[in-house]
Amino acid sequence: MGGMTELGYGWLTPILSYAMAVLGSALGLRCTVRAVAAEGRSKRNWLLTAASAIGSGIWTMHFIAMLGFTVTGSEIRYNVPLTVLSLLIAILFVGAGAFAVGYGKHRGRSLLVGGVTTGLGVAAMHYLGMAALRLHGSVSYDPVTVAVSVLIAVAAATAALWAGLNISGPVAAAGAALVMGLAVSSMHYTGMYAVRIALHPGQTPLAGATVMQFIFPLAVGLGSYLFLTSAFVALSPTAGERAAAATAERLRSSPAR
User: Fold this and answer.
1) What is the pLDDT of residue 25?
2) Half-sphere exposure of residue 4, counting CA atoms within 13 Å on the CB side?
3) pLDDT confidence tier of residue 257, bands split at 50, 70 and 90
4) Which residues contact 201 (CB under 8 A, 6 or more apart)?
5) Domain ranges of the chain
6) Which residue in 20, 102, 204, 253 has its CB near the most CB atoms, within 10 A?
7) What is the CA 214 to chain-centroid distance, rounded?
8) Cα 56 vs. chain centroid, distance in angstroms?
9) How far apart (Å, rounded) are the C-alpha atoms in residues 69 and 248?
10) pLDDT at residue 194 is higher than 60
11) What is the spatial distance between Cα 63 and Cα 213, in angstroms, rounded to a whole number?
């Protein structure tokens, strides 16, 4: 058993990873709320943006946190195809949850399906990302702790979706994003607590990419996407604002009585 730590950079990586989870969650929940009020192609586009935002946010959170993950006695590499697949799985699961909420006819059932699917997406991304880990040893998990981590993800994701859709106002939106970010972070660190590593020291070079070769550049790219998309969403008018503007324009252009 080798010693391992997730605080290789002190508290920088936990704080930064949580911030990215909150940013992705805030953007995704905002897009989901807009999708519920939209119709047709606009609804679909808002839901796709929500899926990409939350999926990218939770993936970036996981791998920024993993920047501080070290194992005494072994270097660490990541399998590139599995790492990319973990991102796609996150977006796919979150997308399924977002579409369930956006197109569901029964609000309670839609929230339940959306929360469960989104929570499972968070868990699937985490454990698939961990499956991409390459080191001189084997990785196993405590099954009870793994189950707890999945329950945390599902419960908190459902609560965040409910808050985002049922409580209006910027404070509520910020609170929902903070809860969703906490769900992702709590799930991650609970899942990491379940990790058991048995080292098999060897001189054989490890296959895969280092964090700085692949993970860090991709995380920076996704983080930039989240910031730019957040700015676009913040500046774009809501359906209510467009309707109000259209009404005001009609009133201005109508002949004076």
Assistant:
1) 85
2) 23
3) very low
4) 73, 74, 136
5) 13-237
6) 20
7) 19
8) 6
9) 56
10) yes
11) 13
> Residue type for 5, please?
T
Q: Which helix (H) or strand (E) holds 242?
A: helix 239-253
Listed range (175-184, 216-225, 246-255) with the worst mean pLDDT:
246-255
For tokens 């209510």, the residue is 240
**DSSP readout, 21-47?**
HHHHHHHHHHHHHHHHH--HHHHHHHH
d(CA 24, CA 29): 8
d(CA 66, CA 209): 14
Q: SS3 of 179, please? A: helix
Smallest CA-to-CA distance from 62 within 136, 6, 138 is with: 6
| Residue 130 pLDDT greater than 70, yes or no | yes
Confidence of residue 4 (pLDDT cuts 50, 70, 90): low
Partner residues linked to 77 by β-bridges: 134
pLDDT tens track for 147-188 = 999 999 898 888 877 876 776 667 777 887 888 888 788 889
